[in-house]
Amino acid sequence: MRIMGLDFGSKTVGVAISDPLLITAQGIEIIRRKEENKLRQTLARIEELIVEYGVEEVVLGLPKNMNNTEGIRVELTKEFQEKLERRTGLPVNLWDERLTTVAADKTMMEAGIRREERKEHVDRIAACFILQGYLDRRNMQKASENM
């Protein structure tokens, strides 16, 4: 079993996949589209990746505002969640993604990656942060249940 993490943006979707033991997240690609509302090819590619990696669950970043309010991006993300659930039949869990893009950018900056190149990778790395946070919480809950 694997879990997929998604960072859903206006023109891109960063994709990460867990290892089979559900311990670590690895970024695998960024799906790009020309228009924000054109989701058919994006959904089709996600579905292909789900089959390829044997994904049984999806985690989708929820872009809340820093003051915990929900703006238009949250609304669009929830609509995407519904479409993804209908198309794949898999559970799609929402995960608070505040500061994941900032953390991804900072990580690349610390690694010495130039600004121009960071833009090419930030969504995939943000998807890793979303998925890794979800996996860590999931594993901590299982560990506390076994005590």
How would you describe the overall organization of this protein?
It contains four helices and five strands, in the order βββαβαβαα. With 147 residues, the chain is an alpha/beta fold. The chain has a single domain (2-145), classed as Nucleotidyltransferase, domain 5 (2-Layer Sandwich). Strands 3-2-1-4-5 form a five-stranded mixed β-sheet, sandwiched between helices. The longest helix has 31 residues, at 115-145. The protein starts with a strand and ends with a helix.
Helix-strand layout with pairing:
Blueprint: E1 2-8, E2 12-18, E3 25-32, H1 40-53, E4 55-62, H2 72-88, E5 92-96, H3 100-110, H4 115-145
Parallel strand pairs: 1-4, 4-5
Antiparallel strand pairs: 1-2, 2-3
Helix pairs in contact: 3-4
Strand runs, count: 5
**What is the share of helical residues?**
40-55%
State the oligomer. single chain
Estimate what percentage of residues fall within beta strands.
Answer: 15-25%
Task: Name the overall outline.
Answer: globular
What's the story with the biggest beta sheet?
5 strands, mixed
- Cα gyration radius (Å): 15 Å
- Termini separation: 24 Å
| Lateral arrangement of strands in the main beta sheet | 3-2-1-4-5
Overall pLDDT: 86
Can you give keywords for this protein?
147 residues, Nucleotidyltransferase, domain 5, 24% strand, globular, alpha/beta, 50% helix
